[in-house]
Structures are given as structure tokens and as C-alpha cells.
Design a protein that fits this description.
Blueprint lengths: L5 E5 L3 H17 L9 E5 L3 H4 L5 H4 L7 H8 L5 E5 L11 E6 L7 E5 L13 E4 L2 H10 L4 E4 L4 H9 L5 E5 H6 L8 E3 L13 E6 L3 H10 L2 H16 L8 E8 L3 E9 L6 E9 L2 H16 L12
Parallel strand pairs: 1-2, 1-3, 6-7, 6-8
Antiparallel strand pairs: 3-10, 4-10, 5-8, 5-9, 11-12, 12-13
């Protein structure tokens, strides 16, 4: 029996709690000393991103708002590890915190949900789509500039309730989250990655810890899924070069081709969808190569754009 419980920090949404419990269950299965009921404690931390729901993330500071308070709790020693959706994790972590573990990635696709159309691209002229994602907004407007995209925040259940109330004609969510919650039945269309490139890290769960916490780091090393870590490393390297945040419509997807080859596809768009650049890479499926591919792809696209490319036009 360990001397003190392993404390897992998480946001309080149903999806975040599911991911924290999934992590707990994997730890209990892997380590006998963590099997007792009191060996692991889940601690809910309210983040700024969860508290402010009436404005776009881009207006209140970007995706770090979902991790800031959790990082502070870890630095203060109030929690030992933290469970995050990888697409919410900033590319730069605070000093003393690192990201040593990702669980096996789930479905990376975006889900389209609507009572008005069976397919996203078949929505009627002038339809209203609600989303919190600039990437989704830009991808929609790039192909269908007639569609009106409005800010739509809150957890999965809140967004679906707004859709049911008729606030919008459709919404979009990460398919992995709906599957984890057992809500796949609400999906109208799972959109292929060829049509709609996902966010970097979408579908993956990441677990952070203090760099000097040997106990936590030993546990997380056993849980890490190598292929997922390599894929997301490529996507986050691409994001890093482009200074990616919730203010920047950036999409990326790295996928294994066999056991030893990685294919990478990256895309950047103007927020209004009027311009888009894409690139691809193929290389060895190693961490070093994945990071190099992502960085190189990001540098290529960065060379195509002006300084104001990601700015929202008034």
C-alpha cells in the first residue's frame, strides 16, 4: 500500500471526468498497489475556460484557459497528475511540468449533428452552425461561405440542449468525446478526415506530471501509448511553429502507414475561410522524425502567409 493517494486533477465536465476515471482504471489495472479504493483520488478543478462561457476562447486568452488552474494546482503540490484532452493542451507547458504520457488515441473525426440535414455540406443556404472552434468555422466557411457560424460554448450536454432548443441548425463536436460518453447515437454524420482535417491532438488524452515526481512518472511511463505519442508529437510540432492557439485555425493529422511509416497532413486557414494552405509529409515513424516533419511542414506554410493571416477581419 502506498503512503499517500495518487491525486488526479481534472476539469469537472462529464467528458473530463470520464477521461480521469479511464486513467484511474488503467492505473489500477497496471499497478496492484493502486487497486484499493483509497489509493487514487480524483480532484475536480474549475478552470477559467469552464467559468466564462459567453465569449469565444480567442477573446479571453485561448486554450490555456482549460489548463492554467490545473497546472497551478500541480505546481503547488495539490495534485500529482492531470488528465487533459490533448487538443486543449498548449504547446508550451509551465516550468516543472511535462507531458510524459498519452493514452491510445480514439477516433479523430469531427461529428456533425443536425435535425435539418444528413450531411454538413447539404445544409440549406444560410443555415446557422454553432461551434466553439475557429478551425471548424474556417473549414466550413472555406467551402460554404453562405453558412452563418456562431460561437457555441459549453460542455457536450449543454451544446446538444441548445441545438435541441433550435438556437442553431447544426453543431459539431469531436467524435471521440461522444463515443467516450456513449452518445454516438446523436451523430448525424462522422466527417472523413479527407473532407475535414481534425485539430492537432484531437481524440487523444494526455497526462501531465511534475518533471521531478519519480513516482508519478514511473506510473505514467507504463501507460503511455507509443504510436499515439508519436502521431500527436508531429501535430503539436506543426502547431508550435505556427504559434497555434484558439486564435488560429490550424488542422493537422498524422497517421501510421504500416508499422514504420508516418504520413502527416497539415492545413492553415484564414478565420473567415477565404484562404487556405495545406502540405503533407511522409517519414519514419519515430519521435525525432515526427517532430521534424511537423516543424518542417509548419515552416513551409508559415512562409506562405502574411503577419495578419490569422487576424479576424472586422
Amino acid at each position: 500500500m502506498i503512503n499517500s493517494p495518487l491525486r488526479i486533477g481534472t476539469r469537472g465536465s462529464p467528458l473530463a471526468l470520464y477521461q480521469a476515471h479511464e486513467t484511474r482504471d488503467k492505473l489500477k489495472a497496471a499497478f496492484p498497489e493502486l487497486a484499493p479504493d483509497d489509493a487514487i483520488e480524483i480532484i475536480v478543478i474549475k478552470t477559467t475556460g469552464d467559468a466564462i462561457l459567453d465569449r469565444p476562447l480567442a477573446d479571453i486568452g485561448g486554450k490555456g484557459l482549460f489548463t492554467k488552474e490545473i497546472d497551478e494546482a500541480m505546481i503547488d503540490g495539490d495534485i500529482d497528475i492531470a488528465v487533459h484532452s490533448m487538443k486543449d493542451v498548449p504547446t508550451y507547458l509551465p516550468d516543472g511540468i511535462h507531458l510524459p504520457c498519452m493514452l491510445e488515441r480514439h477516433d479523430v473525426r469531427d461529428a456533425f449533428i443536425s435535425n435539418k440535414s444528413e450531411r454538413l455540406w447539404d445544409l440549406p443556404q444560410g443555415a446557422v452552425v454553432g461551434t466553439a472552434s475557429l478551425r471548424r468555422q474556417s473549414l466550413i466557411l472555406n467551402r460554404r461561405p453562405d453558412i452563418k457560424v456562431v460561437t457555441f460554448r459549453g460542455n457536450v450536454q449543454t451544446r446538444l440542449k441548445k441545438l435541441g432548443n433550435g438556437d442553431v441548425d447544426a453543431t459539431m463536436l469531436a467524435l471521440a468525446g461522444l463515443k467516450r460518453l456513449g452518445m454516438e447515437d446523436v451523430v448525424t454524420e462522422a466527417i472523413s478526415t479527407e473532407e475535414f482535417l481534425p485539430a492537432p491532438g484531437q481524440g487523444a488524452i494526455g497526462i501531465t506530471s511534475r518533471t521531478n515526481d519519480d513516482r508519478s512518472n514511473d506510473y505514467l511511463a507504463a501507460l503511455n501509448h507509443g504510436q499515439t505519442f508519436i502521431r500527436v508529437t508531429a501535430e503539436r510540432a506543426f502547431l508550435t511553429v505556427l504559434d497555434g492557439s484558439c486564435r488560429t485555425p490550424i488542422a493537422a493529422h498524422a497517421l501510421y502507414d504500416g508499422d514504420n511509416t508516418l504520413n502527416f497532413h497539415g492545413q492553415i486557414l484564414r478565420p473567415d475561410g477565404t484562404e487556405s494552405f495545406e502540405t503533407t509529409r511522409t517519414g519514419p515513424a519515430s519521435l525525432t522524425s515526427a517532430e521534424s516533419m511537423g516543424r518542417d511542414a509548419g515552416l513551409e506554410l508559415k512562409g506562405h502567409i502574411s503577419a495578419d493571416f490569422f487576424e479576424v477581419k472586422e
